[in-house]
Automatic annotation (TrEMBL):
Ranges where the Acyl-CoA dehydrogenase/oxidase C-terminal domain occurs: 281-443
Start and end residues of each Acyl-CoA oxidase/dehydrogenase middle domain: 161-269
Organism annotation: Roseovarius mucosus DSM 17069
Function of the protein: Involved in the assimilation of dimethylsulphoniopropionate (DMSP), an important compound in the fixation of carbon in marine phytoplankton, by mediating the conversion of 3-(methylthio)propanoyl-CoA (MMPA-CoA) to 3-(methylthio)acryloyl-CoA (MTA-CoA).
The entry's keywords: FAD, Flavoprotein, Oxidoreductase
The name this protein goes by in its record: 3-methylmercaptopropionyl-CoA dehydrogenase
Taxonomic lineage: Bacteria, Pseudomonadati, Pseudomonadota, Alphaproteobacteria, Rhodobacterales
Molecular-function GO terms, alphabetical: flavin adenine dinucleotide binding; oxidoreductase activity, acting on the CH-CH group of donors
Enzyme category, top tier: oxidoreductase
Family classification: Belongs to the acyl-CoA dehydrogenase family.
Length: 572
């Protein structure tokens, strides 16, 4: 079954739901006209449909391998990557000063999502490079920018991020990698990093690693961490790959899915590196890359959901099984109510997750273009929701895709299972979804709830305006928003953060459910209250939005009952 990029869906969301026109009205993004955006989406769609999607199974069936210290990538990946790089898709949002397109992150998010639908394993490579480009643009010295950014922007070189160590996963401050001054402005970086996505490849001239390490005078914990750029090949006086650096890929992980993406254990033995940003300020610099990647990973989840949905829909339209329960039906399993329930849930949640991610990207663009603190706060607030809900949606939709296939979904040849296996890690890497939820319930409410309340005010204002034309849809959204407002107030009232953390995950999901209702209502209004988007909005608002009540009840229970269970109770 061929993949078809949902270009019309992105254009509708840009025009009617997330307000790309507001971004284009700024001086910074004035060139991203509707005609240019349409052309970008159309060309990206062609790349994804014709070049990347045919590589999807290759990566799963012929994984990346480590042979004599060299990473050999899956068949066709080198050609696929070259098409990505030559088309400028690595650098869509990179600043034009370094050769980038300078397009809005909103457009980049849509393109990256398409690429994730087509071939997630390969898309992860340019996503990492995009994050590194942004980190260097914000924090690197002019000399480092001059050497590295043109190469990364062109796709000639690739970038990675190195945080995790065997003893330091989510607790990054426990890292042991050290960096010692060489006396010439460079540093000797020594240590081991694990779970390094695309730690090496055989199709770029160089691989540039952003590595967190501790200087000799670095204090314990995250406040003593610095960030270093450590290339596979040290650039010569002309900026070309020169001497091999003292680093290597020790091994590649054997994974549940995402087989085409090599996940490396990296060893640094006094490798030459350059400081990025200020000493002991590495976490702030790395978070620039991580926040970019978190939105990108949310898009990966949505992209896989789209691919899995298209796969399941094609099967449901073709597969005949049992008597059709409706008059004049197609005779295929899409006539069955439970199959239709699954497909409607998949489609409705994809729309909700996609709208949240694009709204986050639009806020990032407005922050970039205006420097306005309110836009910065909105972008920061929506980032953990976009990441967690986007990836949870990817996992749930891929699992439902297997279910729609029935027994054939459990058979690898159909390809349904690959979506489920590939997307599972997205809820784990770039900060687990539990950590995203804790971030939302704690750090993102440090403003006293100002960013949260601003969103809730907008949702309620739209629901109020829709009461006259779509009362049956507007009223539930308004009521759900009031319940969410009470949950935010409860969170703010808990000074013991562990009380918040006990319900952080359902709090995030409840917030996402309400945002989804808001965006579905907005889509129905744009359609005039009569049509396929209105019918989908009705399904979401009447069947999925009500989940918010149970989620928010869970969110506001506190931690007492959790800790009443003893370790012995769990083992009983």
């Amino acid at each position: 079954m061929p993949y078809r990029a949902p270009v019309d869906e992105y254009r509708f969301l840009f025009d009617q739901v997330v307000g790309l026109s507001q971004v284009v009205d700024t001086d910074r993004f004035a060139e991203a006209t509707p005609d240019m955006t349409a052309a970008i989406l159309a060309e990206a769609a062609r790349l994804c449909e014709e070049v990347l999607y045919p590589l999807q199974r290759n990566g799963d069936l012929s994984p990346a391998k480590l042979e004599n210290g060299v990473v050999r990538t899956s068949p066709g990946y080198a050609e696929g990557y070259r098409a990505i790089a030559d088309g400028g898709w690595v650098s869509i949002s990179a600043h034009p000063d370094h050769g980038g397109m300078g397009l809005p992150m909103t457009v980049t998010t849509a393109v990256n999502e398409m690429m994730s639908s087509a071939c997630l394993s390969l898309q992860l490579n340019p996503l990492m490079t995009q994050g590194q480009i942004e980190a260097l643009e914000h924090h690197a010295s002019d000399d480092l920018k001059a050497i590295y950014l043109p190469k990364l922007v062109s796709g000639a070189w690739a970038g990675t991020m190195n945080l995790t160590e065997p003893q330091a996963g989510s607790d990054v401050g426990a890292l042991r990698t050290k960096a010692e001054p060489n006396g010439d402005g460079t540093y000797a970086v020594t240590g081991q990093k694990i779970y390094i996505s695309w730690g090496d490849n055989d199709f770029t001239e160089n691989v540039c690693h952003l590595v967190l390490a501790r200087l000799p005078d670095g204090v314990p914990g995250t406040k003593g961490i610095s960030l270093f750029l450590v290339p596979k090949f040290i650039p010569d006086e002309n900026g070309n790959p020169g001497k091999r650096n003292s680093l290597k890929v020790v091994s590649l992980e054997h994974k549940m899915g995402l087989h085409g993406s090599p996940t490396a254990v990296m060893q640094y033995d006094g490798a030459t590196g350059w400081l990025v940003g200020k000493p002991h300020d590495g976490m702030r610099a790395m978070f620039t890359m991580m926040n970019n990647a978190r939105l990108g990973v949310g898009g990966q989840g949505i992209g896989v959901a789209e691919g899995a949905y298209q796969h399941a829909l094609a099967y449901a339209l073709d597969r005949k099984q049992g008597r059709t329960p409706v008059d004049g039906g197609s005779g295929s399993i899409i006539d069955h109510a439970d199959v239709r329930r699954m497909l409607a849930t998949m489609k409705a949640d994809i729309f909700a997750a996609r709208a949240i991610a694009l709204a986050c990207a639009q806020a990032i663009d407005m922050q970039t273009a205006t420097g306005n603190a309110n836009w910065a706060a909105r972008a920061a607030f929506l980032t953990p929701i976009a990441k967690a809900f986007g990836t949870d949606t990817g996992i749930a939709v891929a699992e439902m895709g297997v279910q729609v296939h029935g027994g054939m979904g459990f058979i690898e040849e159909t390809g349904a299972a690959q979506y489920s296996r590939d997307v599972r890690v997205t809820a784990i890497y770039e900060g687990t979804n539990g950590i995203q939820a804790m971030d939302l319930a704690a750090r993102k409410l440090m403003d006293g709830g100002e960013a949260a309340y601003a969103l809730l005010d907008e949702i309620e204002a739209q629901a109020e305006a829709a009461r006259a034309s779509l009362p049956a849809l507007a009223e539930p959204v308004w009521q759900a928003t009031e319940s969410l407002r009470e949950a935010v107030e409860w969170m703010l009232g808990q000074k013991d953060l562990n009380q918040r953390f006990a319900g952080a995950a359902p709090f995030l999901r409840g917030f996402a459910r309400v945002l989804g209702g808001h965006f579905h209502l907005k889509a129905a209004l744009a359609e005039g209250g009569n049509g396929p988007r209105t019918r989908l909005a009705r399904f979401y608002i009447t069947r999925l939005l009500p989940e918010h009540a149970g989620l928010l009840a869970h969110a506001t229970q506190g931690a007492t009952d959790l800790y009443a269970l003893t370790p012995e109770d769990f083992a009983a």
